[in-house]
Design a protein that fits this description.
The chain is of the alpha/beta class. It folds into 2 domains: about 140 residues, Glucose Oxidase, domain 1 (3-Layer(bba) Sandwich); about 200 residues, Class I glutamine amidotransferase (GATase) domain (Rossmann fold). The chain has 11 helices and 19 strands. The protein has a 10-stranded mixed β-sheet, sandwiched between helices. The protein has a 7-stranded mixed barrel with strand order 1-2-8-6-4-3-9. Strands 5-7 form a two-stranded parallel ribbon. β15 and β16 form a beta hairpin. The chain is globular. The model has no long low-confidence stretch (mean pLDDT about 95). Belongs to the CarA family. One of its GO terms (biological process) is L-arginine biosynthetic process.
């Protein structure tokens, strides 16, 4: 186990609020938009979810690292969060299957973090003030110097990030002789989405974010298209909106998750907005208004579709509603085999209430 000394560290929020804690992970400085996740487990999946690229994550569960790091339980090839804020940073771990400690993992991947923070107080503060940029440092403790560095960090509003996390080369998942072929537009796709496709006899080909519809069609001739989750502001992604419009014109089935949901809305002239805090956790109740049942869902998004515009649209209809705040969690395009949800039906370790959405997409391709 790597030697670990609890050096002092500082968390500074954009409004000038300061929290003092202890260094965790790599000694250094990091910046990003601060947000929080209410999940009680699954910290490794959170760390490696590309949708969190550019964000400093606050975990509301008191213990992080207690079951170690297992290399095959990741959602991408590396840590995607910009930094971590936690209360108890547990280097010693209990799970026999774990490959290494959280400290070794963070040092290998150069993640700067801070522990020994009253995360309950911090989360209550963010809930009241809204998401904002922040800086963590265990090498610079001068607040004025940190304020200067933080002032240079761009707002997440208007930021295009998907092209930075997308694959640079195409690759395939599943068996080539599978009955269904799906082209996946990788805007920050999670591995468990691809696992859910392969479990359903889908041969998927994953394409870089800026691949056009014509290129995917000519290369793969898929039965359907999937638009993935990912980070950043969807309204800054003209290239992806154009691709979604072309897919809709082709009449081929399409399924979108999270960012893919927002892009489907934008392709139908429905605007998106930056949310005050966003939804991030494993416990958000969503009602399927078509089937009249409730699902407990996993969520991770800081942008959403404008509710009034969805309801006023003659192009789409609402399929899912968040029961906490009545925000739109799912839509389908009228007269087309195209639908999307704002949450994550592939969620691992859970919940699994919404896995049926993958089956609905398969049915569209039959």
């Amino acid at each position: 186990m790597t030697n670990y000394t609890k050096l002092p560290a500082v968390l500074l929020l954009a409004d000038g609020t300061v929290f003092h804690g202890k260094a965790a992970g790599k000694i250094g400085t990091t910046t990003g938009e601060i947000c929080f996740n209410t999940g009680m487990t699954g910290y490794q999946e959170i760390f490696t979810d590309p949708s969190y690229f550019g964000q400093i994550m606050v975990t509301t569960n008191a213990h992080i690292g207690n079951y170690g790091i297992t290399h095959d339980e990741v959602e991408s090839e590396k840590i995607q969060i910009a930094g971590l804020v936690c209360k108890n940073y547990n280097i010693a771990y209990s799970r026999k299957q774990a490959d290494e400690s959280i400290q070794d993992y963070f040092q290998e991947q150069n993640l700067v973090s801070i522990s020994d923070i009253d995360t309950r107080q911090l989360v209550r503060y963010i809930r009241e003030k809204g998401a904002m940029n922040a800086i963590i440092s265990s090498e610079i403790l001068d607040i004025d110097e940190l304020k200067e560095k933080l002032a240079a960090v761009p707002s997440m509003d208007g930021l295009e990030l998907s092209s930075q996390v997308s694959t640079t080369e195409t690759y395939t998942v599943g068996e080539a002789d599978a009955p269904y072929r799906v082209a996946v537009l990788d805007l920050g796709v999670k591995k468990n989405i691809l696992r859910n496709f392969s479990k359903r006899n889908v041969f998927a080909k994953v394409y870089p974010a800026k691949t056009t519809f014509k290129e995917m069609e000519a290369d793969f001739e898929p039965n359907g298209y999937f638009i993935s989750n990912g980070p950043g502001d969807p309204s800054a992604m003209d290239y992806a909106i154009s691709t979604v419009k072309d897919i809709l014109s082709s009449e081929k089935p399409m399924f979108g998750i999270c960012l893919g949901h927002q892009l489907l809305a934008l392709a139908n002239d429905i605007p998106t907005k930056k949310m005050f805090n966003g939804h991030r956790g494993l416990n958000h109740p969503v009602k399927n208004v078509i089937k009249n049942h409730c699902e407990v869902t996993s969520q991770n998004h800081g942008f959403g579709v404008v509710q009034d515009a969805v309801r006023a649209s003659d192009k789409v209809e609402v399929t899912h509603i968040n029961l906490n705040d009545q925000s739109i969690e799912g839509i389908r395009v009228k007269g087309k085999n195209a639908f999307s949800v704002q949450y994550h039906p592939e969620s691992s370790p859970g919940p699994h209430d919404s896995r049926y959405l993958f089956d609905d997409f398969i049915d569209m391709m039959k």
